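Annex B, item 7. Sequence and structure tokens for protein A, then protein B.
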Amino acid sequence: VRSSVMKLSGQTIVLTGSSSGIGAEAARKLARLGATVCLLARREDQLEAVRASIIASGGVAHPCAVNLAAPEAVDAVAATLLVDHPRIDALVNNAGRSIRRSISESVDRAHDYERTMAINYFGAVRLTLTLVPRFIEQGHGHVVISASMSTQVPIPLFSAYLASKSALESFTRSLTAELGHHGVTSTVVYFPMVRTEMSTATQIYQAMPMLSAEKAANWLVKAIVDKPTRVTSLAGTMGELGMAALPGIVTKASQPLFRRMDKSLAKRAKD
């Protein structure tokens, strides 16, 4: 812990999606490790509650209410951050929205894909781009994205969400490939299912074992402190290796497994 405190003391970290769930828990943990945390999310009252809890524990936090789906709002909050904080050490693109709907039920709902991309991809990219000049100027900057284990294996029913996360992964990899020599680094965090407001909004998932938001927040802390290229699980790694080596077989074999899982979860949710 002492090593972590030394690494984060004096650092400023911008964290989106920090009003609840993984983001709020990570904000509290990062503040306890000495970082100044800039809290970005839409819900101002919940941001204030997270800030108050951080201040009560002796930390430093600055709430910034913003709708990341609105380009002008992203530009405005970024301008404020750059003025208020001469040094910004890391950006955590954690905010996101998810839609669980089959492709066959989405043929007349292209707006589902558009609004998911607006937050999960375009909002995150726009915010990152506004901070890149500062990262280059100061010679360092770390970008973390909250991705999903479901991009490592073929998962049904979340095509809008997973497409947006895959796009953000590719952008983040390119960011490091192009700007690594300027000290700009990145970490992709492949979360499994985490018990948050977003996941439990789907009724059948209330019966599914999930990682707690408190434990998931440790993954983001690891990404900030250690700066690995990725943080993932054994299951995610094995799934990715399987898709790389035998994509057709893995995809075909997984289809009946997910159908059975959904039926089992639906039954347990009713019971």
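Protein B:
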Amino acid sequence: MTKRLRWGIISTAKINDALIHAINGAPRSDLRAVASRTTEAARAYASQRGIPTAYGTYEELLADPDIDVVYNPLPNKLHAEWTVKAAQAGKHVLLEKPLVTTMADFDVIAAAAQANNVVVFEAFMALHAPQNRKVAELVQQGRIGKLHLINSWFSYHLPPENADNIRLHPDLDGGSFWDVGVYPNSLSIMVTGGRAPQEVWAVQEIGESGVDVSMSAQLRFADDVVAQIYSGFRAPLVQGAQYIGTEGMIRTSAPWFPGMQGRTAFGADPVIQITNRDGSEENIALPATNPWQMEVEAMEACLLDGAAPVVPLSLSREFLRSALAVYESARTNKPVALTS
């Protein structure tokens, strides 16, 4: 391993722009290559974004000995296949959320990572953001007393006429919960200590293409902490999170993109708002940071310094267990109990 990480990206997905900006801004990373399904598409994309090498197949990029880490933003259905192939080629992988959509695929990735001694972690940029990590710290330290309730939501408008969008394709594991519901799901699990809920109840609205266009779920954790979470494709772009305890409430207005305008520009510093039981208020302002760059730097720390991932596979397993229970409850219209 060199003292700098050499990155390659498979596909020319729109989300890449956030990672390209992040890799270019990270202190110990270099973006070396991009791969697409055709040489022409890869060369055009690389030329537009200043990427030195373009490959016309994903296999060519994985065979490049000068690539240490691969970013995989492919459609959900392809996550397991290409992450396993990357691991078998000796590449570490930053894998876009959701990691996978079945437990069988999770087990395949975990086994490939272990067998090939590579790091694979889920690209939950919001869980790397200092604002959300500070909230988890405050809650776990008892700043608002005993936690009772979490409310969190993430939605945006994705109209049915946008039928070619992969998020609306059932055969690619689309759906609002897999796309944006995983954010409040994962945050609730992180804040409550890293374990999946004990019971889940969910309701969904199925859209024209057969995927969920809204999902409302209630997660019951140990100690009777309840999280109420929402995702949707038929609502305005809204995000937020609230945490209610016996001694107060914490609110964050932008938990998924704290302090950012779009994916590369900074706005105002994010603020954690605390309302105490007596009605007094306190604001904790944190410097705006790029959460995508923080996950790139987390990979640097893992591979160059021996640090543990911020989102290890063990935590991603809990996220997946909860998400699968949400979908099962919505499908059956019954509560679903999770076993350890």
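Comment on protein B: The chain has a mean pLDDT of 95.
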